[in-house]
Request: fold
Amino acid sequence: MDNYDNIDELTGLYNLNGILSHLQSHDKSAADSSSVIIYLNVMNFKAFNQRYGFVGGNEFLRGLAGEIKGLFPEELIARTAGDQFIILANSLDEKEITDRLTMLSEASTKHDKGLRLHIKAGIYQEAGDEADPVIMIDRAKTACDDIIRVYDKSINFYDEALSKKNELRQYVIDNFENAFENRYFKVYYQKEVRALTGKVCGYEALARWQDPVMGIISPLIFIEVLEEVHLIHKLDLCIIEMVCKDLRDDIDSGYAVEPVSVNLSQLDFELCDIMVEIDKCRDKYDIPVDLIHVEVTESALSFGADFLDQQIRKFRDAGYEVWMDDFGSGYSSLNNLKNFDIDVLKIDMDFLRTFDTNKKTQVILAMIVNMAKELGIHTLAEGVETKEQYEFLRRIGCEKLQGYLFGKPMPVDDFDRAVDCSSGVCEDFSLAPYYDRIGEVNFLGNTPLRDKSFEVFNNLPLAIIELQDEIAQCIFANRAYLDYLSTLGYASLSESNSVYGTTNHPDVMEFTVSLKRAADSPDHRSVSDIVTNGNAVNHKIRFLGEGGGRKAFAVVSRNNSIHEENDTAESLRVAMAHVFNQYFRVDLFDEDGTVDNIFLNADQKSVSDITRDSKEAVRLYSEYYIYPEDKERFKKFYDITTVRDRIKDTENEYVVDYYRSATPGDDGRMQMYMILPFYYNGRWKFISLCRYADEIKDDVWK
Ligand code: C2E
Ligand code: MG
Ligand code: MG
Reply:
């Protein structure tokens, strides 16, 4: 039997002829032993060939053939077409088949040059009633074809359900011409609901085949067939015509009118000028463009990206909304978001199927909505079936919902217009743009008030800080944190790091203490308010872990003094004004020898407007306002260069002294002068406060 006609030259395996003649002879000789047919198809092989050429492609096929032989040494193996293989086994159970195919899938990665060629397998187990062994191959292939579009399934056994589906499919193939002729195709409508208001804001048109023999046939079966025979555009235009007709009825009826989204197949774009056809239909029934939205599926988008990009653009330029259907169910969802400009993302209902059972589902849904909003795309969740799902989707800001919770698809005749199309149930369509604006707000984002800029930005000032040998150093700061540092007077991260790395001033020490407190606390957290460079700063700290003698912390810091909208800052400002009022003047000295008057509530000159030189200003001030006998003492007291040394000798954080006033009318009244140093912006500053001290009796000094 092994003559050259039966052998595949490339791999040395059998070819189709070879396996068929074997099956036929096997059928005769061993009718009672049950055979298993495994049909293998390599996905994306075309792409591999394009990338690595035929030589590279052949190399892969030879490599794969070798792996199959290794894993199925007892079995008969054939390559029947380009990237399709058949394994004929005599008796292998399901588990063994699954295990070996899983190993094959892993082994194939040795040859696919990193391109990840998925291998799909359909398996048919002989029942004994097959008239012709070719049927066995057909059924294995059917099982394989059945999962070609199911991206997370690579092994499929032919079973009863598949057999029924296959029968129905055959019926569809035999009868679709009839169906068009006899108008078996009908349109069903399913509600789309605005999550925010709970009102109906549109419908999706879904095709049904109402067959006198088979009953209602699902689009899941006939769409594929119609695509294969290139008649899908005929169906879609038929649906669109019915939709336009129904919309015209709605408009004329005076009831609420809502937009309808129609499903397009990728082939529609190739088989006709689909937009021109839709326009014609709209013209015929005089339907405005914003009442028809078009849905394209992700899988449709993954072919010929440039072409579809143009088509989508054409629709959008003409005023149609383009919706991406079944988002998340395909291979390259995220790429599609990048490559196409679309209006609405319909999130695939597969996500909601695991809403209750898989905790990750909610996170993924939230992230999809979050991402869509950051990209300026609206969202609709398909397949909403429970109140909990509704509540969750509303909370994360998903704008529109569709699913059995709100209603199954129904024919127009089943709608009770007086109720279903009343203004209590339906949204006023003219408000759609208004609600769309609201829908743009990202409830999950932390910059909900900013315009969309496609910039990745976290409003929360976040830093990662390491503590080693008592020295805190920031190893990461996001942009908001850098902004926060600049409010403290630090121009860069390295500037703040150098202050935190070298100085021992009180702000830094207090901060280090807060870090340590987080590390030592049972929940690894601490919160503290620290006055830093004159600002009231709030730090929320979380200890992350330690290694190599270092401890790491995540820190969120806020400068409460500059956030005007912040209650604390406002209270601080008011309190400050009252504190100042206790004094008749407040001046600010700098270690560089300058002075500024910052508050004055007395019949005095500010002096710093005459000179900013602190020594000269002090001299002038004492000339004007200090009692002659106290002048020398006063000037010594205001020698800023010695203030910090003088403080060291006391238990206070300031120096204070009393001088009699020479201001006319004061009559030698006693005054208190106080100097308080603080560290700000990399330097020492000195606040000088003056008030009357009538409690001090003149005779104390005598
Ligand atoms: P699709 O566009 O994603 O439509 C949503 C499908 O989910 C519909 O199935 C709908 O009946 C079903 N569905 C809606 N809510 C729920 C729910 O809460 N739970 C569950 N389990 N299912 C729900 P249907 O009508 O069988 O349509 C299947 C697919 O066939 C559609 O998926 C669409 O891709 C395609 N299709 C339908 N009508 C047309 C058409 O006129 N033209 C084209 N090209 N494709 C169509
Ligand atoms: Mg759809
Ligand atoms: Mg869908």
